[in-house]
Amino acid sequence: MEKRFVAIWFRYLETDWMIIRQPRLKGIPFVFSSKVHNRMLVAAASPDAERHGIYPGIPLADAKAILPALEVFDQKPDRKQNLLKGIGEWCIRYTPIAAVDLPDGLILDASGCAHLWGGENEYLKEITCRLRTAGYDVAAAISTTVGTSWAVARFGNEKIIAPGGQLEALMSLPPAALRLEESILQRLKKLGFYQISSFITMPPSVLRRRFGQQLLDRIAEAVGNKAEPITPLQIIAPYEERLPCLEPLKTATAIKIAIERLLHGLCHRMKSEGKGVRRARLKCFRIDGEIQQVEIGTSRASHHVEHLFKLFELQVQTIRPALGIDLFLLEAIKIEEVSQAQEKLWAGPPGLDNARVSELLDRVSNKVGSDAIHRYLPVEQNWPERSFKVAASLDEKPSTAWRTDYPRPVLILRQPEPIQVTAPIPDYPPMNFRYKGALYETRKADGPERIEREWWIEEGQHRDYYVVEDKNGQRFWLFRSGHYSEDQTQQWFIHGFFA
């Protein structure tokens, strides 16, 4: 596939942005100023200020002398980069690869994208018209190289350069179109080289000796003899599907149709590679520049379209299309291998290994929250708080078996809570205990079960646990910390509840 790059040039980036924020400034000359070596200089000038002869780089005092009514605003050092970054992220609706080109431009890798808008002419027209409608004065060009696109956008007339036409497009342009340092441009001017055609055919050794290696590098990049990498604003997800819309979509039904189409493309590719989705994100780019997004998660890797669609369907109601959505982007942000055994479980026995069970858990967790459902696995630890862990997925296998030699509650508190106990001594269970203000009278009890701390992890008292049943049939897991002592009034704790 032939590489195609779009260069976008913002003639008055900062002043256009200021007019968008403060419409009263339209038609009024104003500038941004900054301090350079203890001198206040004009950093950016509005079109109306330039019509009075005020340009970036001149002293602010001279600008005020030319136009005493000139409005002046302070320049912020990171404003250009932040503006270009924000606009570049908006341009991701036209291509997955957009890069900032300081101080006043963007570079888009449009390879394989233009046909979605009916060709390069319509593609370029769509981008520039949308930016101009937003209030920015822009020019753009498309070619096979970044250098030629940059040059033609700023100095050329023909904005679409056919593959292989880079050299011809550069010939009539000034040397500044090659993005050269000012010192090189001055030397070229002194020798009378006012067009690239005046020197581009000269022997490389002559150009290198007189103007340095940068000139040769820029020529090579522009004509396509040397690759010029760009740094994208966002790293492209390995598994991603895009769906641009010719007309903005506003209804829930249309959004669901778009999601289903995206899932078919994504799942077909993942299935062919033996992979499945664990987490996926849907981004909806609205025509007003806002981005709506929703995420889903699965308990095990899946490339089952119907199942993933049901999970996204639960989230559709949270998407606010406003004036319409013109681009959908589906990213698989976490993927895992799908085992062949899983494929055979569609008609398998009930249990966690059954695919229908995992799908049910996915729907519940995506509806009420992923923190509402947990699966626990045993851990080889004596201390109850450390004897289990949360499983990362339904496919994770336990490293040891659950203990069944002693009774364990179905609910264990994260931290044992102190209780007030009336108990004979030294090793008898409590006759009654008070927990959160309520008094519980013991009818049956079993114990004690002594659990020692792991001495290689931490030091501390042992625990003597009792299974206690009150007169209402409720069963609790209580323990006394350490040996009985008359000096310690708070030795008893509640740690869990039985079914």
Q: Portion of residues in helices?
A: 25-40%
Structural class: alpha+beta
Gyration radius (Cα, Å) is: 35 Å
Mean residue pLDDT: 87
Which consecutive residue ranges, at least 5 long each, have pLDDT under 50?
342-348
Rough shape?
elongated
CATH topology of the largest domain: MutS, DNA mismatch repair protein, domain I
CATH architectural label of the largest domain:
3-Layer(aba) Sandwich
Q: Proportion of β residues?
A: 25-35%
* The number of domains: 4
Number of helices: 14
Q: What top-tier CATH class of the largest domain fits best?
A: Alpha Beta
The main sheet comes to: 7 strands, antiparallel
The order of strands across the largest sheet is 14-20-19-18-17-16-15
Tally the beta strands.
Answer: 20
Alpha carbon gap, first and last residue: 64 Å
Pfam family, one: IMS
Family: Belongs to the DNA polymerase type-Y family.
Keywords: DNA damage
GO biological process, one term: DNA repair
Brief account:
With 499 residues, the chain is α+β, with helices and mostly antiparallel strands.
Provide a descriptive summary of the structure in words.
There is one protein chain. The protein is of the alpha+beta class and about 500 residues long. It folds into four domains: about 5-155, 3-Layer(aba) Sandwich (MutS, DNA mismatch repair protein, domain I); about 165-225, Orthogonal Bundle (DNA polymerase, domain 1); about 240-365, Dna Ligase, domain 1 (2-Layer Sandwich); about 410-495, no CATH class. Helices cover about 30% and strands about 30% of the residues. It has helices spanning about 15-20, 45-50, 60-65, 80-90, 120-135, 145-155, 165-170, 180-190, 205-210, 215-225, 250-270, 305-315, 340-345, 355-370; strands spanning about 5-10, 30-35, 40-45, 70-75, 100, 105-110, 140-145, 240-250, 275-285, 290-300, 325-335, 375-380, 390, 410-420, 420, 430-435, 440-450, 465-470, 475-480, 490-495. The strands form five sheets. A seven-stranded antiparallel beta sheet has the order 14-20-19-18-17-16-15, with no helix packed on it. β2 and β3 (about 40-45) form a beta hairpin. α6 (about 145-155) packs across α10 and α9 (about 205-210) packs across α10 (about 215-225). The chain starts with a strand and ends with a strand. Mean pLDDT is about 85; it is low at about 340-350.
